[in-house]
């Protein structure tokens, strides 16, 4: 199986070097070599790729701006000499940040990390499709193998970089080898994101204030302003539905 990739680099020397390295990695198929983020954006509107190797500081649109503008972005690996972008890159769930000058050894390490992530995502999607007939539970892959967990047992989930930690009603924690961004795609609608670091089980909410949520376990979860409105709308929607049901509407 081959994984598809796209290159974005405005410097011709560094672009040619990256292309040469990637051609030596048989598991990768280069779909396009782009000189700018704008050119890449047009290609991505019609072409799906698994991994994007991109510079950050480019004349038209930066690599970070491109990533923010994509609705369902592929895995991003930034290759740049501008180390000041590293913190912001990881905030955006970037897979890796490679400083220039690029070396083959460092590139291979990053690609292996991306492929491991892609394979894990595929395994999760396969397990999810297999368990559609029984929606009360799901499987996660942890360091010991696969663990079966009932949805209603989960109180909240927190991000720990590329992985996620699940907290259950019996006080157990599980480390899933998948980040929150991809994990939420596999979960039913009563799991909602309330902070870049947290997903909660909506059914476990005891109270909500401007800046925090208290769950049934007594744990306090921070509520980000960017997610507050969405959560309040969901609460109001559930309240209106309950009132309508009680009135027989």
Automatic annotation (TrEMBL):
<dbReference type="GO" id="GO:0000156">
    <property type="term" value="F:phosphorelay response regulator activity"/>
</dbReference>
<feature type="domain" description="Response regulatory">
    <location>
        <begin position="4"/>
        <end position="115"/>
    </location>
</feature>
<feature type="modified residue" description="4-aspartylphosphate">
    <location>
        <position position="55"/>
    </location>
</feature>
<dbReference type="Pfam" id="PF04397">
    <property type="entry name" value="LytTR"/>
</dbReference>
<keyword id="KW-0238">DNA-binding</keyword>
<dbReference type="InterPro" id="IPR011006">
    <property type="entry name" value="CheY-like_superfamily"/>
</dbReference>
<protein>
    <submittedName>
        <fullName>DNA-binding LytR/AlgR family response regulator</fullName>
    </submittedName>
</protein>
<dbReference type="Pfam" id="PF00072">
    <property type="entry name" value="Response_reg"/>
</dbReference>
<keyword id="KW-0597">Phosphoprotein</keyword>
<dbReference type="GO" id="GO:0003677">
    <property type="term" value="F:DNA binding"/>
</dbReference>
<feature type="domain" description="HTH LytTR-type">
    <location>
        <begin position="138"/>
        <end position="237"/>
    </location>
</feature>
<dbReference type="InterPro" id="IPR007492">
    <property type="entry name" value="LytTR_DNA-bd_dom"/>
</dbReference>
<dbReference type="InterPro" id="IPR046947">
    <property type="entry name" value="LytR-like"/>
</dbReference>
<dbReference type="InterPro" id="IPR001789">
    <property type="entry name" value="Sig_transdc_resp-reg_receiver"/>
</dbReference>
